[in-house]
Amino acid sequence: MVRTFGCQMNEHDSERIAGLLEHDGLEPVADEGLADVVVLNTCCIRENADMKLYGTLGTLKKWKDADPNRQIVVAGCLAQKDRESVRTRAPWVDVVMGTHNVHRAAELLHQSSESGGVTEILDEAIVDDYALFPSALPVRRETSYRSWVTIQIGCDNTCAYCIVPAVRGKEISRPIDDVLGEVRSLAAGGVTEIFLLGQNVNSYGRDLALASRRAGDDTVRIAPQFAALLREVGAVPGVRRVRYMSPHPKDMREDTLLAMAETAAVCEHLHYPLQAGSDRVLAAMHRGYTAERYLDRLAEARRTIPDLAVTTDIIVGFPGETEGDFQRTMEVAAAAEFDSAYLFIFSPREGTAAAAMVDDFCDPAEVGERYERLKVVLDRSAVLKHRGRIGRIEEVVVEGNSKRNPAHLTGRTRQNKLVHFSSDEQLRVGTYARVEIVDAARFHLAGRFVEVTALPVHRTRIAVTSA
Ligand code: SF4
């Protein structure tokens, strides 16, 4: 059983760990009571991650005491950062492994069966090792039609609140042919939606050209660019949708917007993290752009890509944020008219620059109140955006039965909007269908089925014949 506590990168790592363990003979189970191995894949970006981890480990101690052959693995970026304290605070953990050791999950479990607790943390990814981008490793995907594809790991930026550069290391891009090879093989297996993952996708490729020049090798003279990658991934036969996350507003370039507009498979959705609307706070965060530049780029994106949905991340209560700074965030958020936003209350992550700004920490009550005020602005634009879609016919990919009403189905539009819709036909997961939008709420749209546009590709049976 693999439990994930974090972001998409973390979920993708979980799929790899699950795939490796299945390959090694384990079967997935949903109930912990039936499991022999529990893997906790941690994330230190999320709030109170350590409290959650140690709380869970406390519960798992009883589970392990009931049968000492059971094994617990702690993986992910919290394990990478707090390697010693995991061992000290929870000595019953069998394996502690870091973000660069995913490929070793099965071996480390065997090692710990033979010789007791194992801790293995690599401080850096090993370039040229298949550990870096283990496309060759087995993966247990949660959905049949969609797959994450890692194009880059690490980050060269220094956002003051973020622990990612410390736990994931410097930016390393995956060679374009390797990415395309994985995408082709996924598409051949029936995957129709590709989700490209990186911490700062707009800078994809910069390191490849640099590394090649340093090695005196001229084969990669010009950095492969993200725009080119988008076009090539979108051109792979069988790929109907391409998404990506996350771009950095300071590095967003015109060629990426054009690639999005001109590549039919690339979805009209841009996750564009604002973080704050005050230039003073943006500078303190080391974000590298002003609010004006952010809004200008956003306007350009909307001009270039028709029907673009825009989502964002905003942090409320960054150290030193005044009421005036917050007002500016409200203004910029209102002007940006986001489709939806992830709103976070600042919480210090040990080891980051912002965690040391203790004297400037904001009053929690004031921050809570700001959060509620900003939420009103964001909710208003989200509802307006959703209402604007009523009466339209949208293509969705079917995700399954609706959790709100099991008689209905749920699908996702190209703009990444959730649609609960009625249908007389039971459509299989992965089917593409046109749906008429009849109603809208804050978090979803309601619709009715119109017609199927593409059936899911299932390649599970083969016929062997001899001539
Ligand atoms: S761009 Fe900033 S927020 Fe994003 S991963 Fe890098 S340091 Fe963190």
Q: How is this structure best described in words?
A:
The protein is an alpha/beta fold and 467 residues long. It folds into 4 domains: 2-120, Rossmann fold; 143-267, Transcription Regulator spoIIAA, CATH 3.30.750; 269-387, 2-Layer Sandwich (Transcription Regulator spoIIAA); 393-454, OB fold (Dihydrolipoamide Acetyltransferase, E2P). Helices cover 34% and strands 20% of the residues. It has helices at residues 8-23, 49-65, 77-81, 83-89, 105-115, 164-168, 176-188, 206-214, 226-234, 254-262, 279-284, 291-304, 323-336, 364-387, and strands at residues 2-4, 37-42, 71-76, 95-97, 118-120, 146-150, 152-153, 172-173, 193-197, 241-245, 269-271, 309-316, 340-345, 393-401, 409-413, 418-422, 432-440, 445-454. Helix 13 (323-336) packs parallel to helix 14 (364-387). The radius of gyration is 23 Å and the shape is globular. The chain starts with a strand and ends in a 13-residue tail after the last strand. The structure holds iron/sulfur cluster.
List keywords for this structure.
Rossmann fold; alpha/beta; 467 residues; single chain; binds iron/sulfur cluster; 34% helix; five-stranded parallel sheet; Transcription Regulator spoIIAA; five-stranded mixed barrel; 4 domains; globular
